User: Fold this.
Amino acid sequence: MIINFNSKGDNNRGFLTAIESAKDLPFEIKRVYYINKIPVGIRRGFHAHHQLVQCLIAISGSCKILMDYGNEDKQIFELNAPFLGLIINKMVWHEMYDFSDDCVLLALASDYYNEGDYIRSYDKFIEIVKK
Assistant:
């Protein structure tokens, strides 16, 4: 699901985009992180979460996100505007790729880091989804 955040401003003064926890997002924000300076050709992600929900925002540059639901459904989204957010729900395998040189990908997460919430094996992910 893509969210279009309310961005105010103009080309003369610039833009301000505010994101309010549990108002603009379907969850409370408990963790914020970002990735940047990704070398050409590198893919990131390759995991799903048991419970965590995230919103990804390309606050600079662009990238693509493959979302795999564990059945035949797969979607590819391109994030290329700082006022667009992509919600990645729990139990969605995701991979980020095709990063522009200036990409800064911001993640807003519904919970604190917990390695036990990660599913890092695609085969295990498929096994869980099929149950």
In short: The helical segments are 122-130. The chain has one helix and twelve strands. The two ends are 24 Å apart (CA to CA).
